[in-house]
Every structure is written in structure tokens, then in C-alpha cells.
Design a protein that fits this description.
Helix content is 44%, strand content 14%. It is of the alpha/beta class.
Length: 354
């Protein structure tokens, strides 16, 4: 298939995803999957793999959005407008799910458990629907701090059946005052950020609705912290386009199982992925490392992240931006890996079915 035809198919897929998920209205995953198959066929896109359909449909059923390119959104909006009576409002329906299906994310203050943790450490906690206990995940945010994109990631993992806590690694003064110190901690492997991560892990372990197993999952900067934290008491680590230190073999001494995902268009990190895989293999650490050739940095996000003025640069250098197809496959791998190493999780969809 030529690049031009593949590009047309990708546009068709994006429009189909937007059309179906924007109008999901809390439908069950099976119904959403059927609508996606019909939309793909109607737009002339090749059939999607069943595993991809299952993941996207499950996410849509609990309100997780897959935001696509602005061009595709504008085209979809135009087509929706053309199909409505004159004078009716023109807008793409919100893709935020319902209160019944979307796990609530609440802001908390993490107790002072360690001498060197941030004073008045903040965090965001989400609890799955139904009755616990559940395996838990410390989720670590990107370098652009905790925004709506990151909060949706917290809710998404809770919907998959995990008790999730995202500590704010910039609690001591916001990203402007804390960013440099936080990156210094990441490079050195010690400092306040690691104390904050450990405090979050202990808070989860102390909860009665936690099974006693905790994983760590991070994005971008948080992915780097997740990699370094893999040897610090966690049951499994998910490293998503996180920096790979030069001494990665030493960092991974005694590490837990690691699942890692990178984008092939990420010019800064993609070339280092073989070194990570070699270090994991040399240490006999169970791992699943995958690079997605067509994806870039931040491909697991459902919308572009970072300051608007920086986004074109991030796109050029890192290939940064959402990639729903790569994201669906990566989430499937993460959940299967965590299920194996942290124990079974009950998703909101499973609880509703029961």
C-alpha cells in the first residue's frame, strides 16, 4: 500500500472513530465495536484488528476520548452540520462519558510519611466502581504537570480496575519552580521526587481497598521516573516514552517486571530503546518492550499536551501527539502485563455487567 493510500485510510479511520465515540452515549463495548466496524466499512477503511476494536470500544464505554487531528475534527463537524436541519446547533457532542461510567478523580493531600517528601504533597486519586479490593498504580505525570489529559489517564486506569494515585511532583512550587529540581532528581536517582513517589506507594498500600500489590506507570518525564523506580518496591512498571539513563543496567538491578512503549518518530528516545531492552535481558528481568514506528512522543495521550506555542516544535522533533491505534495496542499490553504481575483487576464494565 502506498503512503498516499495509507494516509487516506488513516483519515477515514480517524473520522470513523470520532463519529462513533462522539455519539457513544454510554453504550456497551460490543455495541460500540459493531458501530466502529460499520463506520470503517462505510468510509472505505480496512477492517480493524479485533484486539484494537475491543480496547477502543471498552475505553469509549467508560468515557475515554480519542481525540484526533484538528483537520479530521473540522471535517467531521462539517459533515454533522450538513446532516442536521437548518438552524440547529453545530457542534461535535462531548466525549466525556457519564457520571455513572467515568470514575471520579479527586484531589487529595498525601500525608507526610517521609522526612524529605514535598511539604503538603498533593495527589489525584481515582477508585474503580464496585467493591474492592483492587491492585493499585502510582501514575506519574508528564513534564508539563498535571492537566486534563493526565487526569483522564488517571480515570482511564481506574476504569480498567486499578486504584490509581497520581502524586503532583511539582507540589512544592509548581512546574516553573520545580521542573529543574525534578529533572535533577531523575538524573541522579535520588531527591524529593522519589520521596514523593514512595509516599504515594505507601498511601496506596495502607488502604483497605488495596490488594497489597502496587505498580508504577509513567508518561514522558514520569516514564523516566517509572523506569528508575522499577527497583524500588513496585510489582510492575510501565515505562511510556521515558528517558533511558546511560547507566540503565545499574538502575535496573533488582527491578520488577517492565513493560515499555516508545514511538518510532521520537527522534530523542527511539534510538535508545535497544539499549533498554539489552539491559533488561542482561539482568534477566521479565519485560515487554515495543516501539511503534508510526507513533511519536506522548502517543498515549488523547489530546496534544504542553503549551500551545510549543506543540508544533514537539511535533517536529518528537513526533508528539495522539495515535489512537498505537495507544490501543499499548494499553492492551500494559493491562495484560499488570494483570499478570499485579493480579487480576475488575474494570467498571465488568462490574456493571455483574
Amino acid at each position: 500500500m502506498g503512503n498516499g493510500q495509507e494516509a487516506q485510510h488513516n483519515i477515514a479511520r480517524q473520522l470513523a472513530i470520532l463519529e462513533v465515540i462522539a455519539q457513544a452515549d454510554g453504550a456497551d463495548p460490543g455495541t460500540i465495536a459493531g458501530r466502529l466496524r460499520e463506520a470503517f466499512a462505510r468510509r472505505g477503511a480496512p477492517p480493524a484488528p479485533d484486539i484494537w476494536l475491543a480496547m477502543v470500544s471498552r475505553d469509549a464505554s467508560v468515557g475515554t476520548a480519542y481525540i484526533v487531528s484538528r483537520e479530521a475534527m473540522l471535517e467531521a463537524e462539517r459533515r454533522i452540520a450538513d446532516s442536521r436541519p437548518a438552524g440547529s446547533p453545530v457542534s461535535v457532542p462531548a466525549m466525556t462519558g457519564t457520571a455513572e461510567t467515568q470514575p471520579a478523580v479527586r484531589r487529595i493531600v498525601i500525608p507526610s510519611l517521609l522526612e524529605d517528601q514535598s511539604p503538603r504533597l498533593q495527589g489525584y486519586l481515582a477508585t474503580p466502581s464496585g467493591d474492592g479490593p483492587w491492585p493499585a498504580v502510582v501514575m506519574l505525570h508528564e513534564a508539563f504537570a498535571i492537566d486534563d489529559v493526565m487526569l483522564r489517564q488517571v480515570a482511564r486506569m481506574a476504569a480498567a480496575g486499578y486504584l490509581v494515585l497520581m502524586p503532583d511532583l511539582f507540589s512544592a512550587g509548581g512546574p516553573r519552580r520545580c521542573l529543574s529540581a525534578t529533572f535533577r532528581a531523575l538524573r541522579s536517582g535520588r531527591g524529593r521526587a522519589f520521596a514523593d513517589i514512595e509516599a504515594a506507594r505507601r498511601v496506596l498500600l495502607d488502604r483497605s481497598d488495596c490488594t497489597g500489590t502496587v505498580g508504577v506507570l509513567g508518561f514522558c518525564m514520569g516514564g523516566g521516573f517509572a523506569l528508575v523506580s522499577a527497583s524500588r518496591g513496585f510489582g510492575a512498571a510501565s515505562v511510556n516514552y521515558g528517558a533511558i539513563p546511560k547507566d540503565v543496567a545499574e538502575v535496573l538491578e533488582g527491578a520488577c517486571p517492565v513493560v515499555a512503549s516508545y514511538g518510532g518518530k521520537d527522534r530523542v528516545l527511539a534510538g535508545s530503546v535497544p539499549r533498554l531492552e539489552a539491559a533488561l535481558t542482561a539482568r534477566s528481568i521479565t519485560h515487554d518492550v515495543k516501539t511503534y514506528p508510526g507513533a511519536g512522543h506522548s502517543f498515549l495521550n488523547d489530546a496534544p499536551s504542553g503549551p500551545g506555542l510549543l506543540q508544533p516544535v514537539l511535533k517536529l522533533v518528537l513526533g508528539a501527539g495522539p495515535d489512537p491505534e498505537a495507544a490501543a495496542d499499548a494499553w492492551q499490553r500494559i493491562e495484560e502485563f499488570f494483570r499478570l504481575h499485579l493480579g487480576p483487576a475488575r474494570s467498571a464494565a465488568q462490574t456493571a455487567h455483574d
